[in-house]
Amino acid sequence: MNSNKMNAIVATGYGSTDVFQFKTVAMPQPKPDEVMVKVIATTATTADAMMRTGKPYFARLFLGLTKPKNPIPGTGFAGYIEQVGEGVRDFRVGDAVFGLTTLGFGANAEFLTIRETGVILPKPANLDFAEAASYGDGHLTSFNFLKQVAKVSAGHRVLINGASGSLGTSAIQLAKYFGAEVTAVCSGKNAGLVKSLGADVVIDYTKADFTQSDQTFDFIFDTIGRSSFRKCKPILKKNGVYLSPVMKLSLLVQMMLTKLSGGKKAKFEATGLNPDPVLRTLLSQVLCIHQAGKLKTIIDRQFPLAKLADAHAYIDSGHKVGNVVILNA
């Protein structure tokens, strides 16, 4: 292959997995304050799959109106520093790193560029590339919601909907780390997994509607956005909060309305829209929890880069458990 070319996935528009094409494209070149990373592992996430469809439509105000502004998808990555810009001081060629490109996307490729002050950290030797690439999705998002947004602490009662997914498997561990009592909602076949991660109570959604529970909760973290504040309100405590990372117009409306009144609240936040220094700090804090032996990364399946469309089809099936990783040969 030409030394100035690389393999990458290119999204030709919005829609089904058919919009993805495996192409040879120009290799990005680092600016003076950037590093080039040779990507060993990247990810395919539920958020990626939603952005691929361009829905909800108002999200295209950020992503691009008729097609993605940044045609190479993916945000999470792990790899080696291949090249450094002339002004870079914190990284050297050959350093193992991991991080998140946020709205820069571009991670589903053989190489990417990112500012040295972006969301990028040295990769510890005891964290493999597949795990490290996944940190920007489940771990970082769940940490932000539970620690920064909700401020979960000892004694709180937390319900996690979508407990066997990328965010859910992380949220169970983090909520327990913060001292909360955790109720996990997932299918019965994944009950053993979520219990092994620390869930105190498991509700099989195929057999029971968690919104009809006789228990009340300080926080309901709807990681998959399949419920709503309206449905969950009866099982929230007096000042309880419904949290979701899934952007819906109805949730944004409820968030604005409940912000003006006391009592129960609805909250949404796009973690990836936080400033890079904030995300980098959060990622460092999450890494410390891993290094203390309190956080595992659950990996469901791995696909080669050329099969990213298959990875998205698997995510669309709704059967993903934990994370889906994309590997470069």
TrEMBL record:
GO molecular function: oxidoreductase activity
Transmembrane segments: none
InterPro entries: ADH-like_N, Chloroplast_QOR, ER, GroES-like_sf, NAD(P)-bd_dom_sf
Pfam families cross-referenced by the UniProt entry: ADH_N, ADH_zinc_N_2
Residues annotated as domain Enoyl reductase (ER): 15-326
Coiled-coil regions, chain positions: none
Superkingdom in the source lineage: Bacteria
Protein name: Zinc-binding dehydrogenase
Organism field: Salmonirosea aquatica
